[in-house]
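Q: What residues go here?
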């Protein structure tokens, strides 16, 4: 990671107040060596939480929802130290990732595509053993004077098999135990072997369906002071099969007059069916998720009968602090209730030497390091030429060649502009229903635009994976890089 002390982000964004920053070119010095559709794959670092959720039957709604909500919280943990911007994906760019736990055990298979340029829309399909997660992300990034707000504006659709797999026997310890700690580790592979069978898109009748919309992220102190960021707002996770939902309230540490460390990265919430609350939870979304087994602890939080003198004591390098300057931060300051039980905590799995060097490597985790690994010569024929790993602007930045990366980024942007001059865009009045088609008939290859049957808005559409990617006929892939 390069020293940015002699570079001012203000010179770049001072003319962008109130505008969408996704439409502006940012100097490479402010980028990190990942494309945005690669960074989206980071959400699956703790995919074990979804595997655990699938080990419960459909009727075990609360247990499933706790693990699903913890997975959503874990998605946020990798973002809080990351103040660098990923590279904008090029229209038609793809990214594929397969993670294995052992030689033959596939943990999940991820495929993403950039389906629109203006507005930028990224979509992905990720399949585990018993679950499928798809998402559409249409990011809007706006500068508000002293802060930058990133609004993902996209739908998240999770499908989990209704019946737990045979032999699963996951239980929750409710005294002094915890749910199984989740961390995703395994070997990374770019794609399936040639001999693999094609993956199939299953019918919805086999699955319970959960949906939500991602929260907004704000980066503070973009002009003066130390950069820091936080998520904010409310997240509603809807269980379309059983009629339950989880409501997550993300607390903000920032106001016009003060910044409170006490609320930094904190969240709490509950699960309900109709007007009846079923369960509750709380924690620090940069660090931990606790289930509250006694609902009275959530509804009457200041009662002496339910409060505990304990704080979350996992501590160590897993915890984030806004203004901390030491190598090992203080322990987490989440106040625990007597019935608080740990479900998930962030585990960087790094040595002290690796922790010391994290700032030099964009604060990547081990999982993130692997996302842009070099493609071996013997495997290049298995990936489309549109895969993000073939982007030389990203690769050169990863290798520390700032000038080469900047030159390559400029070349790709000019090439893309030339392609857009020769294309026409067809869109409805609602930008979420954009369909892009060039003069030669180009359309997204791996995702189709269909009605969003899970939305209360009948006019809303979503991008659905069509399964053609796994046929591995990449002859029609455009020449992007």
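A:
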């Amino acid at each position: 990671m390069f020293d940015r002390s002699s570079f001012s982000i203000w010179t770049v964004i001072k003319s962008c107040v109130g505008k969408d920053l996704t439409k502006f070119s940012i100097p490479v010095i402010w980028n990190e060596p990942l494309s945005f559709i690669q960074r989206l794959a980071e959400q699956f670092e703790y995919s074990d939480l979804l595997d655990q959720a699938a080990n419960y039957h459909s009727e075990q709604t609360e247990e499933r929802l706790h693990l699903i909500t913890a997975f959503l919280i874990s998605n946020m943990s990798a973002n809080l130290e990351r103040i660098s911007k990923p590279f904008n994906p090029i229209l038609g760019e793809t990214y594929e990732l397969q993670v294995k736990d052992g030689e033959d055990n596939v943990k999940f298979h991820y495929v993403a595509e950039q389906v629109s340029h203006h507005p930028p829309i990224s979509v992905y399909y990720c399949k585990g053993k018993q679950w499928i997660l798809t998402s559409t992300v249409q990011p809007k990034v706006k500068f508000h004077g002293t802060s930058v707000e990133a609004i993902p504006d996209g739908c998240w659709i999770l499908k989990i098999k209704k019946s737990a797999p045979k032999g699963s026997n996951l239980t929750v310890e409710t005294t002094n135990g915890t749910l199984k700690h989740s961390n995703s580790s395994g070997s990374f592979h770019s794609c399936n072997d040639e001999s693999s069978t094609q993956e199939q898109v299953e019918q919805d009748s086999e699955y319970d369906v959960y949906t939500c919309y991602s929260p907004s992220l704000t980066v503070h102190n973009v002009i003066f002071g130390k950069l820091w960021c936080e998520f904010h707002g409310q997240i509603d996770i809807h269980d379309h099969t059983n009629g339950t939902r989880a409501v997550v309230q993300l607390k903000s540490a920032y106001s016009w007059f003060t910044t409170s460390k006490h609320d930094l990265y904190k969240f709490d919430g509950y699960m309900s069916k109709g007007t009846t609350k079923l369960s509750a939870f709380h924690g620090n979304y940069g660090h931990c998720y606790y289930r509250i087994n006694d609902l009275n602890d959530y509804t009457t939080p200041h009662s002496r009968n339910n409060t505990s003198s304990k704080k979350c004591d996992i501590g160590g390098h897993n915890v984030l602090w806004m203004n901390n300057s030491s190598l090992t931060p203080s322990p987490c300051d989440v106040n625990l209730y007597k019935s608080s039980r740990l479900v998930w905590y962030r585990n960087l799995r790094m040595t002290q030497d690796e922790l010391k060097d994290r700032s030099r490597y964009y604060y990547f985790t081990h999982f993130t390091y692997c996302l842009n690994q070099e493609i071996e010569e013997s495997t290049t024929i298995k990936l489309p030429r549109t895969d993000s790993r073939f982007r030389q602007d990203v690769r050169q930045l990863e290798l520390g060649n700032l000038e080469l990366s900047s030159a390559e980024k400029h070349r790709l942007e000019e090439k893309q502009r030339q392609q857009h001059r020769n294309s026409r865009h067809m869109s409805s009045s609602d930008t979420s229903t954009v369909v892009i088609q060039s003069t030669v008939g180009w359309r997204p290859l791996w995702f189709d635009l269909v009605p969003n049957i899970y939305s209360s808005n009948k006019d809303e559409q979503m991008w659905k994976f069509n399964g053609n990617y796994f046929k591995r006929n990449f002859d029609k892939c455009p020449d992007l890089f």
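A: Context that may help when evaluating the design: DSSP finds nine helices and 24 strands in the chain. The chain has one domain: 10-256+344-471.
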